[in-house]
Amino acid sequence: MTESGMRIAAIRTTPLALAFKEPYHWAGRVDDGAGVVLVEVETEGGLTGVGESVAALPADGTLAAIRAVTPLFLGQPAHDIERLVTAARHLGSFNHTPWYAALTLAGVEMALWDLLGKAVGWPVHRLLGGAVRDEVDYFGFVQGDTTEELAEDARELAAAGYAVIYMKVGRGEEADVRNTAAVREAIGDRRLRLDPNCAWSVAEAIHMIGRLREFEPEWIEQPTPLESISALRQVRESVGVPIAADQAVFTPADVYDICRQRAADVIVLSPHEAGGLLAFGKAAAIVEAAGVAVCLHGQGVSGITDAAQHQLGLRTASLTDGNQIMHQLLVEDLITAPDLTPAHGKLGRWETPGLGVELDRDAVARAAELHEHWAGR
User: Fold this and answer.
1) Are 327 and 20 in contact (CB under 8 A)?
2) pLDDT tens digits, one per residue of 46-93
3) Cα–Cα distance, 186 to 214 (Å, whole number)
4) How far apart are CA 358 and CA 335, in angstroms?
């Protein structure tokens, strides 16, 4: 395709609501679904790339923010990804809200990578330097409300071959102990990770991890509020159980600060939180230099994002096993291909150009209708 044919002609955005199969229970809340914005970038030559930005429910704020930066992209070469996203990141109030900028712009950047891959006939992982592994390992994400539901789901995930089992805590001391004990019994000696999602103060975290230690958690993810790196460090220095940073880390600068302060043993990060696939690569390089590992994080997203994250997992040397995907929690995904179902917790690589996804336009239309319904309720 000619240079002129690769100039950006339009950015189309569609707010969507994704319903979960069952209520999603985690510290402090229960969610019935998630909001995203489908981003489609079209070139003057007629090529289209797709991406996905995460959003609150409803998704209108993220939709407006993407539309506000769209003029910066129009008429520009689609392959100038670093220059275009950097310019958008520093526009207006994004200067003061870098985390929101990251979550908003990641979907636009994702679509540009999909577009570029389609233009040259390469999968995104090859554009990013090539795969360092043939498959990525994912954890089994325990779902349910009651102790019995959690234990049964954990038992099924273990039977399906997941080597790492992950569950939410932070739902009250006695419930956490009871649920963790039941899940540990259900999964035997498989590795168990616990995530309180910022639910505990430093003192509460030290106390709770002391109570949960007997169930041999592999690590505790983000036990303390996201605003304080020092709180995370205090817990890590006190408990003798590995600590993962999640909500406390978005930008590469956050990664650097956490690694410099030795506040975590693992960095849990997604391209949305980092602000795109390029920014994720920068963050992963910092993590690797610090001798720490990086784990893919998931939000309430469709297979579009999970396919993009998988491309990152294939090419990230410092990646852990037991990474996170979320599309399996949805009533209906937005893609018909590729098949993102792990076999024994593992998902291989594909060579389809770009992200390799095929949109289900009927599913997109239904998600758009659900957005309108939820926005008006």
Assistant:
1) no
2) 999 999 999 876 688 899 999 999 999 999 999 999 999 999 998 877
3) 15
4) 5
